[in-house]
Amino acid sequence: AQKITQTQPGMFVQEKEAVTLDCTYDTSDPSYGLFWYKQPSSGEMIFLIYQGSYDQQNATEGRYSLNFQKARKSANLVISASQLGDSAMYFCAMRAPVGGGSNYKLTFGKGTLLTVNP
Amino acid sequence: GAGVSQSPSNKVTEKGKDVELRCDPISGHTALYWYRQSLGQGLEFLIYFQGNSAPDKSGLPSDRFSAERTGGSVSTLTIQRTQQEDSAVYLCASSLPPDRGYTFGSGTRLTVV
Is the pLDDT of residue B2 over 70? Predict the structure, then answer.
Protein backbone atom coordinates (compact mmCIF):
# COMPACT_ATOMS: atom_id res chain seq x y z
CA ALA A 1 0.00 0.00 0.00
CA GLN A 2 1.09 3.53 -0.68
CA LYS A 3 1.56 5.83 2.26
CA ILE A 4 2.81 9.36 2.79
CA THR A 5 3.74 10.61 6.26
CA GLN A 6 4.23 14.22 7.27
CA THR A 7 5.11 14.30 10.96
CA GLN A 8 5.09 18.08 11.47
CA PRO A 9 1.56 19.43 11.90
CA GLY A 10 2.96 22.96 12.15
CA MET A 11 6.23 24.77 11.60
CA PHE A 12 7.39 28.31 12.31
CA VAL A 13 10.23 30.11 10.57
CA GLN A 14 11.58 33.65 10.60
CA GLU A 15 11.42 35.62 7.40
CA LYS A 16 14.54 35.17 5.22
CA GLU A 17 15.55 31.94 6.97
CA ALA A 18 15.47 28.46 5.43
CA VAL A 19 13.03 25.78 6.55
CA THR A 20 12.75 22.04 5.93
CA LEU A 21 9.41 20.27 5.79
CA ASP A 22 9.62 16.53 6.32
CA CYS A 23 8.04 13.81 4.23
CA THR A 24 8.51 10.06 4.25
CA TYR A 25 6.82 7.63 1.90
CA ASP A 26 6.23 3.95 1.46
CA THR A 27 5.66 2.04 -1.74
CA SER A 28 6.70 -1.32 -3.11
CA ASP A 29 6.81 -0.09 -6.68
CA PRO A 30 10.23 0.99 -8.02
CA SER A 31 8.69 3.61 -10.31
CA TYR A 32 7.06 6.50 -8.52
CA GLY A 33 6.97 10.27 -8.37
CA LEU A 34 7.01 12.65 -5.47
CA PHE A 35 5.32 16.05 -5.39
CA TRP A 36 4.99 19.01 -3.10
CA TYR A 37 1.95 21.26 -3.24
CA LYS A 38 1.24 24.53 -1.47
CA GLN A 39 -2.27 25.38 -0.33
CA PRO A 40 -2.72 28.96 0.87
CA SER A 41 -5.76 30.05 2.83
CA SER A 42 -7.56 30.68 -0.46
CA GLY A 43 -7.70 26.90 -0.91
CA GLU A 44 -6.08 26.52 -4.31
CA MET A 45 -3.52 23.74 -4.75
CA ILE A 46 -0.28 25.08 -6.20
CA PHE A 47 2.30 22.68 -7.62
CA LEU A 48 5.80 23.41 -6.33
CA ILE A 49 8.24 20.67 -7.25
CA TYR A 50 8.50 17.12 -8.60
CA GLN A 51 11.04 14.31 -8.10
CA GLY A 52 11.00 11.05 -10.06
CA SER A 53 12.24 7.89 -8.41
CA TYR A 54 14.88 7.40 -11.10
CA ASP A 55 16.07 10.98 -11.15
CA GLN A 56 19.76 11.14 -10.25
CA GLN A 57 19.77 14.67 -8.95
CA ASN A 58 17.63 16.42 -6.39
CA ALA A 59 14.97 18.61 -7.93
CA THR A 60 15.15 22.38 -7.57
CA GLU A 61 12.69 25.08 -8.55
CA GLY A 62 13.75 28.58 -7.57
CA ARG A 63 13.70 28.81 -3.77
CA TYR A 64 12.35 25.26 -3.47
CA SER A 65 14.52 22.16 -3.42
CA LEU A 66 13.70 18.58 -2.68
CA ASN A 67 16.10 16.60 -0.51
CA PHE A 68 15.52 13.13 -1.95
CA GLN A 69 16.99 10.26 0.07
CA LYS A 70 15.81 7.13 -1.68
CA ALA A 71 17.23 4.60 0.76
CA ARG A 72 15.52 6.36 3.64
CA LYS A 73 12.35 6.89 1.60
CA SER A 74 12.30 10.56 2.42
CA ALA A 75 11.54 13.57 0.24
CA ASN A 76 11.91 16.67 2.37
CA LEU A 77 11.08 20.11 0.98
CA VAL A 78 13.57 22.88 1.64
CA ILE A 79 12.43 26.47 1.25
CA SER A 80 15.26 28.97 1.24
CA ALA A 81 14.96 32.62 2.17
CA SER A 82 11.39 32.32 3.50
CA GLN A 83 8.91 35.04 2.63
CA LEU A 84 5.71 36.07 4.38
CA GLY A 85 3.81 34.80 1.36
CA ASP A 86 5.13 31.31 2.00
CA SER A 87 2.76 30.95 4.94
CA ALA A 88 0.44 28.15 3.88
CA MET A 89 -0.32 24.45 4.20
CA TYR A 90 2.20 22.24 2.42
CA PHE A 91 1.34 18.77 1.18
CA CYS A 92 3.68 16.00 0.12
CA ALA A 93 2.22 13.53 -2.37
CA MET A 94 3.29 10.38 -4.17
CA ARG A 95 2.21 9.08 -7.55
CA ALA A 96 2.57 5.35 -7.92
CA PRO A 97 1.01 2.71 -10.11
CA VAL A 98 -2.04 0.85 -8.93
CA GLY A 99 -2.97 -2.58 -10.16
CA GLY A 100 -0.08 -2.63 -12.60
CA GLY A 101 -0.13 -1.07 -16.03
CA SER A 102 -0.31 2.64 -16.55
CA ASN A 103 -2.91 3.57 -13.97
CA TYR A 104 -1.67 5.89 -11.26
CA LYS A 105 -2.89 7.18 -7.94
CA LEU A 106 -1.76 10.36 -6.22
CA THR A 107 -1.71 9.90 -2.46
CA PHE A 108 -1.31 12.87 -0.12
CA GLY A 109 0.10 13.33 3.34
CA LYS A 110 -1.86 15.20 6.01
CA GLY A 111 0.12 18.38 5.47
CA THR A 112 2.28 20.81 7.42
CA LEU A 113 1.08 24.31 8.24
CA LEU A 114 3.99 26.71 7.76
CA THR A 115 3.92 30.13 9.38
CA VAL A 116 6.53 32.68 8.39
CA ASN A 117 7.10 35.33 11.04
CA PRO A 118 8.30 38.84 10.19
CA GLY B 1 -10.10 25.42 -21.17
CA ALA B 2 -7.11 27.09 -19.59
CA GLY B 3 -7.56 25.42 -16.24
CA VAL B 4 -9.65 22.87 -14.37
CA SER B 5 -13.10 24.27 -13.76
CA GLN B 6 -15.39 23.08 -10.97
CA SER B 7 -18.96 24.00 -10.33
CA PRO B 8 -20.64 25.05 -8.22
CA SER B 9 -17.99 26.72 -6.11
CA ASN B 10 -20.26 26.53 -3.08
CA LYS B 11 -23.23 24.31 -2.37
CA VAL B 12 -25.44 24.23 0.69
CA THR B 13 -27.89 21.37 0.79
CA GLU B 14 -30.27 19.82 3.24
CA LYS B 15 -29.51 16.46 4.76
CA GLY B 16 -31.00 13.69 2.66
CA LYS B 17 -30.91 15.58 -0.64
CA ASP B 18 -28.84 14.50 -3.65
CA VAL B 19 -26.10 16.73 -5.05
CA GLU B 20 -24.07 16.76 -8.25
CA LEU B 21 -20.62 18.26 -8.46
CA ARG B 22 -19.07 18.98 -11.84
CA CYS B 23 -15.48 18.99 -13.03
CA ASP B 24 -14.35 20.23 -16.43
CA PRO B 25 -10.69 19.23 -16.89
CA ILE B 26 -8.04 20.81 -19.04
CA SER B 27 -8.67 19.97 -22.67
CA GLY B 28 -6.73 16.87 -23.69
CA HIS B 29 -6.04 15.67 -20.16
CA THR B 30 -7.04 12.04 -20.10
CA ALA B 31 -6.59 11.41 -16.38
CA LEU B 32 -9.03 12.91 -13.87
CA TYR B 33 -9.08 12.58 -10.10
CA TRP B 34 -11.57 13.45 -7.36
CA TYR B 35 -10.39 14.20 -3.83
CA ARG B 36 -12.20 15.26 -0.67
CA GLN B 37 -10.68 17.61 1.88
CA SER B 38 -12.33 18.02 5.26
CA LEU B 39 -11.58 21.12 7.31
CA GLY B 40 -7.92 21.24 8.28
CA GLN B 41 -7.23 17.79 6.86
CA GLY B 42 -5.27 16.33 3.98
CA LEU B 43 -6.69 15.22 0.67
CA GLU B 44 -8.61 11.98 0.65
CA PHE B 45 -8.57 10.13 -2.67
CA LEU B 46 -12.01 9.26 -4.00
CA ILE B 47 -11.79 8.06 -7.61
CA TYR B 48 -9.53 8.13 -10.65
CA PHE B 49 -10.59 8.16 -14.29
CA GLN B 50 -8.47 7.29 -17.27
CA GLY B 51 -10.56 8.36 -20.21
CA ASN B 52 -14.12 7.34 -19.42
CA SER B 53 -13.22 4.34 -17.29
CA ALA B 54 -12.43 4.31 -13.58
CA PRO B 55 -9.52 1.93 -12.85
CA ASP B 56 -9.55 2.92 -9.19
CA LYS B 57 -12.68 3.85 -7.30
CA SER B 58 -11.46 2.45 -4.01
CA GLY B 59 -11.76 5.76 -2.18
CA LEU B 60 -15.49 6.24 -2.58
CA PRO B 61 -16.73 6.21 1.05
CA SER B 62 -20.04 4.45 0.46
CA ASP B 63 -22.50 3.43 -2.20
CA ARG B 64 -24.10 6.86 -1.84
CA PHE B 65 -21.15 8.20 -3.81
CA SER B 66 -20.82 7.67 -7.55
CA ALA B 67 -18.99 9.34 -10.40
CA GLU B 68 -18.99 9.24 -14.13
CA ARG B 69 -17.06 10.77 -16.94
CA THR B 70 -18.32 11.23 -20.45
CA GLY B 71 -16.52 11.93 -23.70
CA GLY B 72 -13.20 11.71 -21.88
CA SER B 73 -13.90 15.17 -20.56
CA VAL B 74 -16.45 16.39 -18.03
CA SER B 75 -16.91 14.38 -14.85
CA THR B 76 -19.78 14.45 -12.38
CA LEU B 77 -19.55 13.32 -8.76
CA THR B 78 -22.95 12.49 -7.31
CA ILE B 79 -23.71 12.14 -3.63
CA GLN B 80 -27.10 10.67 -2.82
CA ARG B 81 -28.96 11.17 0.45
CA THR B 82 -26.32 13.56 1.76
CA GLN B 83 -25.22 13.38 5.38
CA GLN B 84 -23.57 16.02 7.53
CA GLU B 85 -20.28 14.13 7.43
CA ASP B 86 -20.22 14.67 3.67
CA SER B 87 -19.52 18.35 4.29
CA ALA B 88 -16.08 19.08 2.82
CA VAL B 89 -14.30 20.64 -0.11
CA TYR B 90 -14.35 18.39 -3.15
CA LEU B 91 -11.34 18.89 -5.40
CA CYS B 92 -10.85 17.71 -8.94
CA ALA B 93 -7.49 17.39 -10.71
CA SER B 94 -6.52 16.44 -14.24
CA SER B 95 -3.29 15.39 -15.88
CA LEU B 96 -1.73 13.99 -19.03
CA PRO B 97 -0.19 10.54 -18.69
CA PRO B 98 2.51 9.67 -17.87
CA ASP B 99 1.19 11.50 -14.85
CA ARG B 100 3.67 14.05 -13.78
CA GLY B 101 1.91 17.38 -13.41
CA TYR B 102 -1.51 17.54 -11.85
CA THR B 103 -3.63 20.67 -12.14
CA PHE B 104 -6.29 21.20 -9.51
CA GLY B 105 -9.55 23.05 -9.75
CA SER B 106 -10.63 25.52 -7.09
CA GLY B 107 -12.96 23.00 -5.53
CA THR B 108 -16.59 22.82 -4.50
CA ARG B 109 -17.33 23.58 -0.88
CA LEU B 110 -20.24 21.37 0.13
CA THR B 111 -22.15 22.10 3.32
CA VAL B 112 -24.87 19.71 4.44
CA VAL B 113 -27.24 21.25 6.96
Answer: yes
